[in-house]
Specification:
Layout lengths: L8 E7 L12 E6 L5 H8 L18 E6 L3 E5 L10 H17 L3 E9 L6 H13 L3 E6 L6 H15 L6 E3 L8 H20 L1
Parallel strand pairs: 2-4, 2-5, 5-6, 6-7
Antiparallel strand pairs: 1-3, 3-4
Length: about 200
């Protein structure tokens, strides 16, 4: 298994239907979160790029499953944001069907990274997503982002509140800042282990 440096990164495809999905021969790591939670900024920080994933002040900019190839070892998948995206109900329903079908059927989906704003209390949509992933048995990791916007003591307090709301242990999440880089090394290490575990399992 080659070492993953998260440096050799390229946009692969914008998938609008399951027929467009790339071959499932390497693992997918998908990123999910509410609109404007900082998902694009997190991915950019992870791969050491400033603008690989386009960021926008307008919710609902991501309208497809955007696949990025990383070190020829995994796909990063940027999922459409959910929540207050100012798009039509039909469009939101289309996204929901696409995401649901992808998560429920993609055999190479190794992990869903659920991104939550550390500054706020647990939102119903976030909890529903985590509960759904638990129900499906899909591996997932919570990342509490925008940590740089809070002092350390407030980070700890808010994280504990979110942990309780999601019914998880502190070891099951990461505090992250796209601006300062807090948590980035830890996230890379976890994703590397996930990819290695996936590869080992599929080589048996």
């Amino acid at each position: 298994m080659a070492t993953i440096h998260f440096n050799s990164v390229a946009f692969l495809d914008a998938v609008h239907s399951l027929k467009q999905l790339p071959p499932d021969i390497i693992p997918d790591i998908a990123f999910a979160g509410r609109s404007n939670v900082g998902k694009s900024s997190l991915i950019n920080r992870l791969v050491n790029r400033s603008n690989l994933v386009k960021t926008s002040a307008k919710p609902g900019k991501t309208r497809s499953l955007n696949f990025f190839s990383v070190d020829n070892s995994l796909y990063l998948v940027d999922l459409p944001g959910y929540g207050y995206a100012k798009v039509s109900r039909d469009m939101q329903n289309t996204w929901q069907r696409l995401i649901s079908n992808y998560v429920e059927t993609r055999e190479s989906l190794a992990l869903v990274v659920v991104i939550v704003d550390l500054r706020h209390e647990v939102k119903k949509l976030d909890r529903d997503l985590v509960d759904w992933l638990k129900y499906l048995g899909v591996p997932h990791l919570l990342v509490y982002t925008k940590a740089d916007k809070l002092p350390r003591n407030k980070q700890i307090k808010n994280a504990a509140s979110l942990d309780a709301g999601f019914n998880i242990h502190a070891t099951e999440r990461i505090l992250f800042s796209s601006k300062s880089g807090q948590g980035c090394t830890e996230l890379k290490e976890i994703l590397t282990r996930v990819v290695e575990g996936f590869s080992s399992k599929h080589q048996e």
